[in-house]
Amino acid sequence: MPAPIIEADGLGIQFVRNRRRQLRLRDLVIHRGRRGGISDGRFWPLRDLSFSIEAGDTVGVIGRNGTGKSTLLRLIAGVLIPDEGRITVRGDVAPLLELSAGFSSELTGRENLYLVGGLHGLSARYLRRHFDEIVTFAGEQVERAIDTSVRHYSSGMKVRLGFAIISHLPHPILLMDEVTAVGDAEFRRKCYATIERLLGEGRTLVLVSHNEQDLTRFCRRGFYLDAGRMSVDGTIDEALAAYHRAVAR
Ligand SMILES: Nc1ncnc2c1ncn2[C@@H]1O[C@H](COP(=O)(O)OP(=O)(O)OP(=O)(O)O)[C@@H](O)[C@H]1O
């Protein structure tokens, strides 16, 4: 049996809050700012996480706001380095996260396509060959503005171009954070079709979403995170049920 494509063992990361700006009023009033763990601004958005994901698994990550879901994706993507434990990722990652990140506002859409595609390892030859397809996918507005500086793009246009590029990566692991929440109905339809095609090819998906339809449509497995800990690692229905019980309390 091949080794898991993503494996976490006692994974944890510590952040430092900007104490003056972010210490909550409740902490100041009830604990007079002395509560352990946050008194020096340090806290663990994720701690003691162990799991393994096999190639082809589709995992939905569920939890309330601020429970560390996006942080987990950023650890898998290698954008963040753990302070405790280990995360092992055996394959390239296509990060459908912060899709307009990496664009250089001075450059045109066309130049950014080559830049961002190149940064993710796509060759200039591949990008030339698939250029029309990528731009068409990004939609008419982007197509018309492809030789305009992206400074003049709306955030939706940047996200659409970003999705069009990243979804062309051949990488086996897809990370998505609320991708389908952006864009209009037409773009969402294209996103769904693309995600289904990619999953049909046997890619591995880790999806963070508050949209239950998306979660049950794309994910077989579910992680329910509660205050930075793994509360349920089961089927997507089991994870959603635990989340519902928690929010009903
Ligand atoms: N770079 C950072 N420095 C300090 N704190 C951070 C940083 N990034 C996130 N946080 C905090 O870490 C915690 C976890 O954040 P994260 O974005 O992973 O939550 P989430 O579960 O994805 O939330 P949401 O559902 O709102 O997207 C939150 O309290 C957040 O405010």
Automatic annotation (TrEMBL):
Which terms are listed as keywords in the entry? Answer: ATP-binding, Nucleotide-binding, Transport
Q: Which family does it belong to?
A: Belongs to the ABC transporter superfamily.
Name the InterPro entries on file: AAA+_ATPase (IPR003593), ABC_transporter-like_ATP-bd (IPR003439), ABC_transporter-like_CS (IPR017871), ABC_transpr_TagH-like (IPR015860), Bact_Polysacc_Export_ATP-bd (IPR050683), P-loop_NTPase (IPR027417)
Can you give the residue ranges of the ABC transporter domain? 23-249
Write one Gene Ontology MF term: ATP binding
Q: What SMART domains does the record tag this protein with?
A: AAA
Q: What is this protein called?
A: ABC transporter ATP-binding protein
Q: Which organism does this record belong to?
A: Micromonospora thermarum
Extract the PROSITE patterns matched here: ABC_TRANSPORTER_1, ABC_TRANSPORTER_2
